[in-house]
Amino acid sequence: MMIDYKKKLNTSREVYPINDIDNSVESDRGRIISTPAFRRLQKRTQVFPLELNAAVRSRLTHSIEVQQNSRYIAKTILDEIKKQGNLEKYNLDSLENAFVSISEMSSLLHDIGNPPFGHFAELSINNWMKNDGIACLEKLYPNINEDNIEIKKELVRDITNFDGNAQAIRIIKYLQRLNLSYSQIASVLKYTRGAFEEKPESSDNLNYLKKKPGFYYSEKDFVKKVCESLEIEKGCRFPLTYIMEAADDISYLTADIEDAVDKGVFTLDDLYIYVLKECKQVNEKYEKDETFLLDLIKRYYNKAKEQEDEPYQFNLFLTLTRASLINNLVKYVAKVYLTNHQEIFDGTFNKALLDFDKTNKYSLAIEVLQNISIKYIYNNKEKQALELKGHAILHGLLNCYKPILELSSEDFLKLVCKKRIDCFVSARLIGRLSSKHIVAYSKAIEELNKDDEQRFNLLEWYYRARLIVDYISGMTDDFALDEYRTLSAI
Question: Please, what is the angle between helix 310-339 and helix 361-373, to 10°?
């Protein structure tokens, strides 16, 4: 396929299309910023759960930083295309604003599906669903005929593979009904495998793009429609998604370290020692003598130490280090994007932009900073204790709502229609669920074929389980804690 961005950046959307591309992207921008799901990110964990210090990043402040990185990368790519005289060749001459805006807004949306208490919560939800949730399904429907064995396997695989990336697509399509342009939606599809599908083999040419679930069974037909509209082949990625991913990766490099120092996990002097140590180990690993990061850190560390005010020392060090790293990495990923332009446009580039060359100076610098985060932040006892607290809250909430998953399809549908059933606990629990989530459930059930009773029952239970997960995963950290205390009578 020739590189023609008019095939990827256009005004198509599910209903009420907007003919002008600039008006279309402005409409998307307004819908995204105004949605309650975006505002809730201000009270969701980035690294440290239940954090009271407002200076430490939330999902919202992280997303804004990623947005800015994305904007910088997109504009750098466009500037280089202009220098090469290829703007008209790629049909980008009237799409510059759309190219930048869609990249930016995909970054604001990229964490919208993440649950409270950080990425650890994804594991927690899946752990509960594999052990307790599926046990409810097996007890209700133990004998499945051959015609429905495969659909049951897919639904079980799907509901036990909660992922923030896939949840983002669900929020956009059904829970908030944002009616974004297909180009904007495709830019959020970071991974191209359905949660109901098997993990890819190592021999799969698109195995990186499929390494995590990107959408659920509930959204598979919608994702197919979006991809067909934008001529995205199965398993392939939308080109601007690579920009969002790189912007996110760049943002992590110094952000977690800055938050760790703010939290008192380690000092500026500790950080300097860690960098020296990790630079040496990474160089030995690759038999290199690369000093890019070391030179940069030493220069700004010495400059910061000249200041007498200790808090200012760290702020100066981080500001200078962050700015220099971002500037270098943005230029690097823009170069990688254009060097592999055809593959990226086709969506077959099977790695992240920052992973293009594992042994260049930028990749080595990234590995050093990632090693520091893993060793001294993510494995910090205080952080892990907070994660365990989040795990207990989520499991507690899921246990509280478990009676709803133990009901037969007939009984739960009566509850939805406000009829009485012989389960007073479930009758009270359903009143606590979000009305938007119940509407999404009801609409999904209306579209099911009721001729095959067994298949209907399996799908109804799946959408019911999805309803509970939608509600709990959509909570903020503090609301989840408060709801847990309320329902547990603590």
Answer: 130
